[in-house]
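FW: tagging you since you asked about this chain on Friday. Here's the raw sequence from the shared folder, copied in full. Didn't touch anything.
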Amino acid sequence: MPPIIFYLLTLATFAAIYGTLVIGLNIQWGYAGILDFMYIAFVAVGGYVTSLLMMPPATPGMGETYILGLNWPFIPAIIAGGLCASLLALLVGLVSLNRLRSDYFAIVTVAAGLILWTIAGNDTPLVNGWDGISGIPQPFANALNLDINSYGFFFLGLCLVILILVYIFAERLYRSPFGRALRCVREDEMVAQGLGKNVFVLRMKAFVIGAFIAGIGGALLVTYVDAFNPSAWTSGETFFLWAALLLGGSANNRGAMLGALLVPVLFAEATRFLPTFNSSPQLVDAIRYIAIGILLLLTIRFRPQGIIAEPRFRVPRRLFHRIGTNLPVAVAANSTRPTIVAEEEKTDGK
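HL: got it, structure written out here
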């Protein structure tokens, strides 16, 4: 395979994986308004659990120690990884989601993510400490018996299938009564409570669903790169995912996928070709963060809804007549004060 084809194949695979991850974050933030800064921890849990279930038992004499090692096939392992990420979200949500809101809950997620990161790095028997795990089995590699070039296209197809399934699920969720209730909670919790909605249950469901998708995406990411350690899920990775969602457009899954293509893949990859000027190797990484931060600030300043804004829904005026008002209540999606735009009735000359 020519190097340029292999390079583009790698970029496409990462774009599909990050697209899945950003859609999961979109369900938490774009749908329900949950400010989650430990999202990358759910990605790590899904990746770790999937890998440890698929790998053979550890051999301490080879300098690698980890738990489990059950030689599971890929399908049950990735499902278990998603469920473990959901279980973690459930535990964090039960402790803090009902008591804290907005910025305070965000602080809890930062603390929880740091605790997990510290445990994973310092508890060597758990997941081999800071060295991490390697030699993760490739999904279906033994069954298909493909060469390395053909397997790359197969894995891309696998990631695209999972991305399409996640996208369809997220779209149906957005248009469902449950999705409308989540957006009501996002915009005004007091109104949602006044309408008889259990805000805690709604937010908890969105938090758990987003974590499950994060676990699935984490499993794909870890099995593709064939290794994982605590340095791969730092605050920088969380920053990339949030930047992708805000740039592409929150509460819009097409925007989430576009942001996943632009920020973690194309934009981050383009900065690798910047000249180093014989300086420290960390300069390029610093410039990458600075450039993405500037791009994010410009987006928030001039287009806060993102490149692809949340869809606008039009409610016929006759609906407002039925509830006893002629006022055209106008609400625009993805704004701090949502509005529903009343559609003018068409006259047929009668």
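FW: The chain is about 65% helix and 5% strand.
HL: agreed, and The first strand starts at residue 133 and ends at 134.
FW: great, closing this out.
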